[in-house]
Amino acid sequence: MTDEQQIQAKIAELATVADILPGVVIVLNHDCRRVLYMSAQGLGLLGATLPEITALGEEYYARYFDPDEAHDYVPKVVELLERNDLSYAVSFFQQVRTGLNSSFELHLSTARILLQGEQGQPLLTICLSYPIEPTSHISTKVQRLLDENAFLRANAARFASLTKRERQVLAGICRGLSSDELAVALFLSRLTVDTHRRNLRQKLQTNSAFELGQYARAFDLL
Hints:
The chain is an alpha+beta fold and 222 residues long. It has helices at residues 3-15, 40-46, 50-56, 59-64, 70-83, 137-160, 164-174, 179-186, 190-204, 209-218; strands spanning 24-28, 35-38, 89-97, 104-116, 122-131. This is Helix-turn-helix transcriptional regulator.
C-alpha cells in the first residue's frame, strides 16, 4: 500500500474503537500541524465537525489552545517526532477552549507516533486527551503550576537582573525576616540590607508583598 492508503486504513481501524475510549482521540498528520481525525467526544467538546477541524490546519492550535503554554509542550512533540520511536510517548497538560463556552478547561494529553511509512518516517501521531475535573485537588495543583510557569516566562528577565545577594534578601523578606534579622543572617549592615531591599523592588517593579512572594516561589527561593 502507498503511504496515503496506509494512513486511511489506520484511521478507519482506529475509528471503530475511538468512541468507546475514555478520552478524546486525535490523529495528526506527519508533522502534527493538521488534525486528520478526532473522536465524537472531542468534536462535541469543540462544537465542530471533523471537516471544519481538518480545514483549520495550524489555526486549530490558536483557536482552541492557550498559546502561552506552547513553550511547555511543543518541544516535547518535536522531540517525539525526532526520536521517531513507536514505543516512545510524551505527556503534558493543556488548557483547551471548548466550543461550549469561552473558558479554558484543563486536559492531560499523551501522544506517540501511530504509523510510520515505508521509509520509516512518521506518518501519523495519535494523542489521547483526558479532561480533568475542575473541582478536583489535582486540577487545583496543576493550575497553580501552570500559573507559576506563566509567571516564570513573563518575568524571567527581571529576576535575572537580581544579584545573588538581592536574591538572598528577597528570600528572607518572603520568609518574614526583618531588615535587622536579615543583616544578622547575611552578615551585613542594616543600611546595606535596606539598599538591597530598595534595589530589588525597583528591578522587579513592585512594592507588593504578594508579588515578591510570587517571584520567590516561582524561582525556587523558598
